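ok here's Myosin heavy chain kinase B:
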Amino acid sequence: MEGGFLFSSSYDKTINVWSLQDFSHVQTLKGHEHKITAIVVVDNDNQSLCVSGDSGSGIFVWRVGTSLKQEPLNKWYETNDWIYRGVHCLAVSGTGYLYTGSRDKSIKAWSLEDYSLGCTMIGHKSTVSCLAVASGILYSGSWDGSIRSWWLTDHSPLSVLEDDAPGSIAPVLSISTEANFVVSSYENGCLKIWKDDVLVKSEKLQNASIYAVKLNGKWLYTGGMNKAINIQELLEDKSELEIRDVASISCDSIVTSILYWDEKLIVGLSNREIKVYDKGS
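and the structure:
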């Protein structure tokens, strides 16, 4: 979301642009030759850019504004062996870099000034599935079950967040950060909460994959294969952290993404629908 617009991407290789005023459809951006797997919006040098990545390792940059040109501002491809081809996630920081997480197990930092490759971060043992930026740190989640953190200043490794409990290893599907908390969801239906890089809560929410997690203050929103949005409250005291169930919203399809904006919950579904819920409703 940026510049008064909401952007949604799909396996149909298109990006749809929606007005945040009335959620009407504004435009469809076309150019990808492969299914779009990630999208992010960034302010760069006083201009808003939409960046999209696809399963063919394509990275497209689109200019955001009232004109919304259909042609991409720039595009390039990661040079991977075809076996490891594909961008799975994107993130941006205030340091002038775009980050891509890929099937080749790496995170790459690209300059938003000239789109050159700044560095490649290695450490994960499988596909990098999700990225998040908070407080000068880049967090990367992987199908290897771990979360790694990296300094944004020099892209050096900081720590590895892992649960050593037997049978706890499962692919990380989504990460959300807030203050000193990192929340991660997993393919096996588990949710884990880390505080200051220490695991403080691990709980199995469902018997199916949780594709989306969003932490907003003390409120936690999750969704996935169970076709529902689960709303929970984090209750913290000096000794422990508890999760209180608040509500559940049934959906017509699998929940693939969750955003929180202006007291509204914006939910993407696998049937290509986008649902908007007011927090007070």
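+1. The chain is about 0% helix and 60% strand.
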